[in-house]
Amino acid sequence: MDLSQNKFSGPLPTCFNNISFGRGQFSTDAFFAYGRYSVIDPSSINLPFLAMEIISSEYYITTFSEQEKVIFTTKSRSEHYAGNILNFMSGLDLSCNQLIGAIPPEFGDLRHIRALNLSHNYLQGSIPSRLSMLNQIESLDLSYNDLSGEIPSELASLNFLSIFNVSFNNLSGRVPDTGEFATFDDSNYRGNPGLCGPLLKRSCNPFAPHPENVGDQDIEVDGAIDVAAFAWSFFASYMVIVISLVVSMVFLY
């Protein structure tokens, strides 16, 4: 379902969780009709849109119905798909609209969805931890919104997540660094100065100096010591001169 680049406004409807393709509510018969054939010459079988896979010396014959090709975007790639295989390549794209409000936790009920793109909107609030129920998700793009709070650590359980983008929000706290999140880098989190963690090379301790600024701080400290030493030496020299003048005047009179 591609509703991107429109002028839809208002909050995200919670009823999106009733979308059938995102809940796996489809018949497997609509996707394939398979049988096990013992054949010597596969070319003797004439079936339209034939897909074959050799398993244990037997052929699994899969037929797809002819449908119009559809462009499906996931993992930052757009591919053409045709036939009922689209039942297994479900995605929801609401990017580049004027949507506001929070991300409904009900989106976590779309457990069979492969891609979810809510980027380039005006969404606020936190990232629902229930999105960790999207156990088939491969691409999750929440960038260019006004989301705040921490990235739920539960998302680290998404084993198929290869594209994750929360850039240019107002997120804060420690970035998950386990599971698939260990493969991400700072390009996934740009524009969130409140985020921290080893992946970002930014300490979560507010009193710890940033590694890149340690040298500058040493220079500043050394400079401060030099100024203090100069001030004390100048004061001591001034007092010596004053005392010498006083002593000289006493002896003269």
TrEMBL record:
Its main location: membrane. The chain crosses the membrane at residues 229-252. InterPro entries: Leu-rich_rpt, LRR_dom_sf, RLP_Defense_Trigger. Keywords: Cell membrane, Leucine-rich repeat, Membrane, Repeat, Signal, Transmembrane, Transmembrane helix. Gene3D superfamilies: Ribonuclease Inhibitor (3.80.10.10). It is a single-pass membrane protein. SUPFAM superfamilies: L domain-like. It is found in: Cell membrane; Endomembrane system. Belongs to the RLP family. This is Receptor-like protein 56. It comes from Coffea arabica.
